[in-house]
Predict the 3D structure of the following.
Amino acid sequence: MKLFDVDAFREAVNRDGEFQIAGRFLDGALKLHFGDEALLLRFRDGKVAGIIQPTLFDSADITIRGPVASWQEFLKPVPKPFFHDMFAAIVRKEFDWAGNSETFFAYYGAFRRMFQIMREHAKN
Amino acid sequence: MARHDLAVGRYVYLTINGVEYRVYYEANGDGIPLICQHTAGAHGFQWRHLLEDPEITRDFRVFAWDLPFHGKSLPPLGDRHWEKPYNLTRDFFLKFILTFSAELGLDRPVFIGCSMGGQVAVDLAAHHPDRFRAVIGVEASITSPGYYLDQFYHPRISNEAKPATMYGLCAPSSPEPNIRETIFGYSQGAPMVFKGDLYYYSVEYDAEPYVERIDTRRCPLYLLTGEYDFATGPADTRKLADRIKGAKFIEMRDNGHFPMSENPRKFREYLLPVLNEIAGK
């Protein structure tokens, strides 16, 4: 993964106080598509249990998809308007999402914080 | 000696459509009345920095209320509200603002409102221009469809979802403590209120049929929008302003959808010249 340091990101998410609160009881999987590349994040009891490159048949509760250029803008320390937040970027159609909307809304606070941590571990 | 906030809060009884409401509001200052409408699902706390700003309160008497069902304004005792869905209608919203103004004896106040308050500023300019000295719409647009979402009032989604999604409406440059205060207000709302308010914002409000009939000679209209507001962004407000002769549009850098509470210092840089112009200074 060229966009961010996956191992450091995972460790930072799991020790982050805000994520631990917002992500409590979170179980499931989030698939992120960065152009042609994808990562599957598995959550168990509010922790990132693993991050893998998924096969075609690995399912996820939520999938978020965007071109590499959109992720690069999103991961800047101060992105331009509407790339500064995933909910904003989805509403403004900079990213596509699919999956379980109940999980998406219930855990958006955790995902939002997780994306901020991803931004903090972006590779320039 | 205790250090008090300068705003003083109290309750007023207002009757709208035959139902009596006990309405909480805060006020401070002297001069031209300036009445402030909070955003959907929030309450009057959003205007607390304006209420304490000496450069504003020396020329304006600032009022900020909690709409019924919001903040400290409880639901009415005289209505079986629990038997029907809560939806904020244009009829109620306009009558509430006009009734508040009339009952407090305010002489052609200046109205400022944000988000749904920005949209109702446009409605007031269109339908009641002679009742106001000027109106200021913050984060306003011609329409704002798509936000009357079940996810904002769902038994299996807690009140945490609202502040989480509101975070992204703030600019990344806004001070973190102010962002957190702003979104905390969204966790305070009764479960049905945010979605119910969005009925006006996203379903009923549509200025398209009358936008070009707004007469800014009768009621000056100012439109201020933050650059990071993804709900009603600067381009949306520009489209509105371009359709109204005499409307003044100002894009606010380093601000989002809640400028008065997410970045009040930056907001006042844009608001003070507008208020000074209204005050004839």
